[in-house]
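Risk register update: the risk that structure generation would not scale has been downgraded. Supporting records follow, first protein first.
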Amino acid sequence: MANVLRHLPELEGMELGYIQGLMKGMDEDQASLFAQVYRARRKDAQMILILTLLGFFGFAGLHRFILGQVGLGILYILTLGLCFIGTIVDLVNYKSLAYEYNIKVAHETINMLNASYPGENDNPSTTTV
């Protein structure tokens, strides 16, 4: 069983527990490969917070583009962050926005690794969300 803190020491809270569950059946090599790919693709909650704050200075919706929600990003730009109300709501929920995105990325990473190395990374927790 791989130690998630050894591979991804920057994780904390709910994300740490979730990723630990995903890495439960991996050996050290698989966990190392997963950690490298996941770290490159995940988004830090602090970055989402900063991009959300930029919404008050005329750059509303940047955080939605970074999270892969292009439609909402365009809507935020055209409506000034839904008249700043959407930006304020996202400012309160920035950690959950980052967490949901990172969980989606973790599952995509595991599925990508399973497709690349079939049979070696058979992990029962690879179901998609």
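Supporting record for the second protein:
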Amino acid sequence: MSIRHSLLALLQDQPRYGYQLRVEFENRTASTWPLNIGQVYTTLDRLERDGLVSNDGSDGEGHVVYSITAAGTAEVQNWFAAPVERNNPPRNELAIKLALAVTLPGVDVQAIIQAQRVASIRALQDYTKARRDTAANQRAADTAWLLVLDSLIFQTEAEVRWLDLCEARMLQQAQTAGQATPRKSSNGVTVEEAAPLIADSRR
């Protein structure tokens, strides 16, 4: 997540001080990614150093107000225009955990998958309920929150499908090794059934 560009985008709207930027960011994303106020001020210092914002002085109540410069406006416009790069995928703690689990002796990979599936499905239910309740209000101000919820729902659905594939692959591997295991995963999904979901998504 680019805090730097998010703050510039909010300053493009109007000059603000640090706490206002934090509140605006969390309001527009429904506090999905809470901002540390120290991180906000550190970022503002760097933006000022780089000539992307200017310090407009105090508002009379002890708040230092910042406004965006022409260079900052160009920076945020470039950010909006450019796609988010996928060259360096963000760290996925779950993928890292499973990758390590399958390479270490004595780790119950099936139990990890099951525990995560329960948590992921619970999160999916919570996101879906929040989306249904928010959509029922039919307020234009909720559009940003609905977009965030849609993103969270799609990501969680994909995670559950991936867990199905992981479990099926583990069972298939155990069968190949001659271990006594059931033919299908707890969700009844085989590698052959789960894998086409990935192939389809690449088209």
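Residues 143-176 form the longest helix (34 residues). On this basis the risk owner (M.S.) recommends closing the item.
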